[in-house]
Amino acid sequence: MRSALLASAVLAMTVGQALAGVEFAGVNIAGFDFGCVTTGECDVTKVVPPLKQYKGRDGAAQMQHFVKNGKLNAFRLPVAWQYLVEEPGAPLIEANMEKYDALMKACLATGSLCIIDIHNYARWDDLIIGQGGPTDEEFADLWSQLATQYKSQPKVVMGIVNEPHE
Questions:
Q1: pLDDT over 60 at 83, yes or no
Q2: How far is it, in rounded angstroms, from Cα 52 to Cα 80?
Q3: Which residues pair with 156 in a beta bridge?
Q4: Which of 24, 30, 99, 134 holds its CA 20 to 30 A away from the CA of 65?
Q5: Whole-angstrom distance, CA of residue 127 vs CA of residue 133
Q6: What is the mean pLDDT of residues 13-32?
Q7: How far is CA 160 from CA 1, 16, 49, 110, 138, in A?
């Protein structure tokens, strides 16, 4: 454990030095995307919110560490579309959004950019958005709900589509 912490500190200092002159740099704080595969299928029972209060890793401490020791200032917060809504076009699931929002608040507390990343590869259950799968309007509805949720937060950035393919 001690050697892992030392290695992490050395890496953070090295990265910090390498980033001199770079405006934004960061890492993913994964967990809300666990269970998703490149087909856009997601087993949300495998989601592990990266926050101690939900028995996950301490994503808040990770972000604080990277800001302080690595001089990072942007964090991508991947999340499964299926974790946020029951079906395309549906309202946000309040209980799940509350957990995701806790991670967002931890990110915002660092003063960093916080990037919402719908981690579904432009798909819902193996169907491509706007190509026989969810409609463009259903996907836009998701983003409209998220934009409404975070409209007063200038540090929240929308990563519209993660790794679309085919």
A1: yes
A2: 20
A3: 114
A4: 99
A5: 4
A6: 79
A7: 37, 28, 21, 23, 13
Assigned token pair, 11:
């890496």
Q: Residue 12 and residue 109: Cα distance in Å, rounded?
A: 20
The DSSP string of the chain is -HHHHHHHHHHHHHHHHHTTT-S--EEE--SBTTTB-TTS-B-GGG---SSGGGTS--HHHHHHHHHHHH---EEEEEE-HHHHBSSTTPPB-HHHHHHHHHHHHHHHTTT-EEEEEE-STTEETTEETTTTSS-HHHHHHHHHHHHHHHTT-TTEEEE--SS---
The whole-angstrom separation of Cα 6 and Cα 88 is 45
User: What pLDDT sits at residue 22?
Assistant: 78
131, pLDDT greater than 90: yes
Check pLDDT > 90 for residue 133. Answer: yes
Question: CA-to-CA distance for 81 and 92, rounded, in angstroms?
Answer: 10
CA atoms within 13 A of residue 38's CA, in its CB half-sphere = 4
Q: Per-residue pLDDT tens for 69-81?
A: 988 999 999 999 9
| This prediction's pTM | 0.86
Tell me the pLDDT band of 7, cut-offs 50, 70 and 90: low
